[in-house]
Write a structure and sequence with these properties.
The protein has 69 residues and is mainly α. The chain has 2 helices and no strands. It starts with a helix and ends with a helix.
């Protein structure tokens, strides 16, 4: 299994999603959407997905190192 490729793919998706979340958070702060619960809920859900992508990517890096030894 190519853990390195999978790890890089997960971490790239993590970076893209984290940038998107950052822009959504800035929208919440700048506009009057602060009371919009749906957007806030969406940001929280995306943030949990983002953390999952990061953790899986880091785990796959460790799996690659274990496989080499």
């Amino acid at each position: 299994m190519k853990y390195k490729d999978l790890s890089e793919e997960y971490l790239a998706q993590y970076k893209n999603l984290s940038l998107y979340i950052r822009s959504l958070k800035m929208q919440l702060q700048k506009t009057e959407l602060q009371h919009d619960r749906e957007l806030y809920r969406r940001v929280t859900l995306l943030y949990s997905i983002c953390l999952d992508l990061k953790h899986v990517g880091e785990y796959l890096k460790k799996c690659e190192r274990r496989e080499k030894t």
